[in-house]
Structures are given as structure tokens and as C-alpha cells.
Amino acid sequence: MSATPVYITIAGSDCSAGAGLQADLKAGFALGCYPLTAVTCVVNEIPGCVEGIVPMEADFVAAQLRLCLSSFPVQAIKTGMLYSPDIVRAVVAELRGFSGAVVVDPVMIATAGEALILQEAIAVYEQELIPHTTLLTPNLDELARLCNCAPIHTFERMQQHACRLCEKYGCAILAKGGHLEGNVCIDLLVQPGGKLQSWSHPRTEGVSTHGTGCTLSSAITAWLAHGLPLDAAVEKGLAYVANAIATSHRLGDIDALNHHGE
User: Fold this and answer.
1) Catalytic residue among 78, 214, 215, 221
2) Would residue 214 show up in a list of annotated catalytic residues for this protein?
3) Is 243 part of any domain?
4) 23, CA 20 to 30 Å: which among 8, 104, 111, 152?
5) Would you say residue 25 lies in a domain?
6) CATH of the domain at 50
7) Among 110, 124, 190, 126, which Cα is nearest to 155's?
């Protein structure tokens, strides 16, 4: 095994460097790993504004993943923005035979509300990718979409639907409760067999959360690559993101940038 744990992030590129591959790289290096990348698409965005998405050819996404897997001692894989049915299928084909942990961040909806996956890709996602998953990390919007239910605002409903997904897919679910009602954020880990664990921390107001989902899933993947068990990797990943939010700083006037075309 390599002295430095290696994992692959399969995701989109964010030109503002707050989310996507850029966030994954920053988290991975900060936590002592060597993160490899397979680029699925290029996104022209800043926090709160997605102007355009250009997807890679599915065969090229698969080629990146295949080369990385054949050339490096990969301990874990994380998927982020996959965008299209063809890209999802290409990734699934390359994951067959991989024995390490697979963390799936079901990137479907940006914080600002823009769709980040084609509608027709969601069924492929559920039928073909999630069966290969160790941990699925939906936010509340993604959890509601995967459960085909009304918007989720309470911890009780979050727990109900996370347990439902865990039973349906047979994989662990980390339901991210950053947008639950109240002043406390609660995240819930549900594992096959019925084990439930939750973590809470005070809500930090006035901070952009753009990219926190990418950072969290990458941090968890990094700790899994280090060899930690799932619950410990989740706990340390959550602590890493909570600290990042608490100590964050602003670069420029994003609110002004969001209205540059108006």
C-alpha cells in the first residue's frame, strides 16, 4: 500500500474553485491523501449562479478513470457531478471489480436551485450506480428527490426517509441536515442493519455553503482511504467541514457578482 493514501474523485470542474473537483482536491491534500481526478464536465459558476455546463464525452470520462485505476494504488472512489445517463453508465462500467469504498454524492441540485444533472440520468443513477455504493450523501433536496416525496424540513422526516433509502438501496446513507428548521444542523448516518448515529452543531449564519457537500464527501472519502471505519470517517469528515465553515473567509463581493448581468 502506498504511504500516501490515494483516492479518485469523479466530478465536475467549478471555475470559482469552491465546489467540484477543486474542493475535492483541497480537502484531499489537507487530509494527507493524494486525490486523483476524472473530469465529467466543466461548469461556469460562482456561488449562487450557474451560467453553463459543458459535459465531457462519456468514453473520455471512462478513459480517465480506467487509467487512474490501472496506474495507482487506489483505496477509495468518490463520485460527484455525473450529469448525464451516458456518463453514469460509463462510470459504473469502470467501477465493476473495484473493491474499495465508493462514496456517492448525488449532485443533482445546486445550492441556488439550478439542476446539475439531466432528468433522464436520475433513473440510471438509482438503478446502476447506487448498487455499487458504500455511502450515499444526499442533502435534503436530493433526499426528497430520491424518495419522490414533499420537501423535507424536520429531523423526524429526514430520519424516516433516510431509513427508507437505506433499506431500498442496501447502502449507508448520510442525510445532511444543514437546511433543517431551527438553529442547529443535524446530520444522520443510517447503516444497513438499523444502526443510526447523528451529529449536531450550531448553525453559522452569513456564510456561503457553496461546495460544502463536495468537501464533506471528499473528506469522508479521504478518511476511508486512510483505512478508518465508516462511522469514524463520517465523524471526522463532518468535523472538518464544520471547522471550515466556522473559519471561512470571503474573497470579493459575490452578491455583486451574482447580479453582474442584470
Assistant:
1) 214
2) yes
3) yes
4) 152
5) yes
6) 3.40.1190.20
7) 190
Kindly give, in sequence order, each residue whose CB lies less than 8 Å from that of residue 133, ignoring residues fewer than 6 positions away. 102, 103, 104, 169, 171
Of the listed 80, 176, 215, 221, which one is catalytic?
A: 176
Query: Which pTM value belongs to this model?
Result: 0.90
Catalytic member of 209, 215, 221, 237: 209
In a domain, 51, yes or no: yes
Distance CA 188, CA 79 (A): 20
pLDDT in tens, 175-212: 998 778 777 789 999 999 989 999 988 776 655 556 67
Per-residue burial over 159-172, b = 16 or more CB atoms within 10 Å of its CB, e = otherwise = bebbbbbbeebebb
Report the distance separating Cα 128 and Cα 133, nearest Å. Answer: 10
Task: Tell me which residue range forms the domain holding 66.
Answer: 6-204+211-248
Active site residue 166: no
Specify the residue for cell string 487509467.
67
State the amino acid at position 178 in one-letter form: G
- How many domains in the chain? 1
Q: In angstroms, what CA-CA distances link 46 with 60, 143, 210?
A: 26, 24, 9
Kindly state whether residue 73 falls inside one of the protein's structural domains: yes
Q: What is the pLDDT of residues 105-120, one digit of tens each?
A: 998 766 555 666 777 8
Q: Is 168 annotated in the active site?
A: no
